[in-house]
């Protein structure tokens, strides 16, 4: 198997890194974190112009026809720049569900405008009592003639404050924890009965909680067969894990580079602190952890192609476990070797550490994935 990037992938990687370097510095990000929107609409439109929003989708759906490796290249850039625009939420999660279950008409109505930067999507699947079990769903959708009425609550909807439409997972049959009986519906923001509570997360991202009380949507907004959304949801969450792994690699790469530069320039007792052999050994450990993380991120992306559900889930759990371990190692070492400066708001290091800490708990923490791995 050839694990080298193709010329097109190399060009994509260079363009993403150039954008982050030239148009999305840390000062720009700090302003966005405290802004009303929490992200840059101009940058979102640029992502569409660059073709980034269309990468994971087939040419038949109006996309570029890329794979998880291509998406991972963009997500690594997201990690390098700590980009605040909802790429994961809109493209990988919301867009992924539409691509998996939507009809041609539904894709033309919601997916293609997202690829063009005109709309943003978000996936509302998690609930206050669900923990990391994605099939735990108390929200219900009952059929009334040519419509469905949805009731329930969703939490931690990534990209929710900026979303124009939500892909809402609700139960049309079965018990709360059943895999069968889950259905997906597209619900526009502002639909009567839909209440949104936005908030900022620990890492400066934006999320929201949703309350749905008697939300009425026509049957044409159901994605796929009634009660058959579980398989697509599981695959999309696995795609999210692979994407997050690449984002973590990008963030870790910046921490490794910035820590090495700090060790070379910070003077103590008349010489750079990087001459201290103990710090050199710790720096080597950071490099090794980064290489391990990069290998596992690629492994996870490649295993998404596996049609064996059990093998795919086991591989993605292994990826998540290793990414969480290496991210914690690199993040903690970077903060410690920067001293007290590592946790100040003015220095980027602490912000990268926060993002890595959030990634560690997204789509299941290490303990949960160890259990899933052992059960596979």
TrEMBL record:
SUPFAM superfamilies, A to Z: Acyl-CoA dehydrogenase C-terminal domain-like (SSF47203), Acyl-CoA dehydrogenase NM domain-like (SSF56645)
CDD domains registered for this protein in UniProt: ACAD (cd00567)
Keyword Flavoprotein: yes
The Acyl-CoA dehydrogenase/oxidase N-terminal domain, residue ranges: 6-118
Cofactors named for this entry: FAD
Residues in Acyl-CoA dehydrogenase/oxidase C-terminal domain copies: 235-371
Keywords: FAD, Flavoprotein, Oxidoreductase
Highest taxon listed in the record's lineage: Bacteria
Residues of the Acyl-CoA oxidase/dehydrogenase middle domain: 122-209
Pfam families assigned: Acyl-CoA_dh_1, Acyl-CoA_dh_M, Acyl-CoA_dh_N
Regions that span the bilayer: none
PANTHER family attached to this UniProt entry: ACYL-COA DEHYDROGENASE, ACYL-COA DEHYDROGENASE FADE28
Protein family (similarity comment): Belongs to the acyl-CoA dehydrogenase family.
Protein name: Acyl-CoA dehydrogenase
Organism annotation: Xenophilus arseniciresistens
